Amino acid sequence: MSKINKSIDPDLKVLGDKIRDLREAKGLNRDIFVREAELSKYYYYRIEYGNANPSILQLRKIAKALGVKVKDLVDF
Length: 76
Fold this sequence. Notes:
By secondary structure, the protein is an all-alpha fold. It has one domain (10-68): 434 Repressor (Amino-terminal Domain) (Orthogonal Bundle), CATH 1.10.260. It has helices at 10-25, 30-37, 41-48, 56-66, 70-74.
């Protein structure tokens, strides 16, 4: 049985989709991106799929690696 939470919060799903879309638009694959963002691969996958609730510090790392502001990630 998977450890990933099956009940996904809709806002976390939107956040994960937005982060993935921005990452893909920059042409970054996940392996490169997680190194740049200084996140674990597993945790980052959970964020993209809406199964994790990242802290503001983690969102800052993601925003910096994407070259955007945190508000750009959460403005939906």
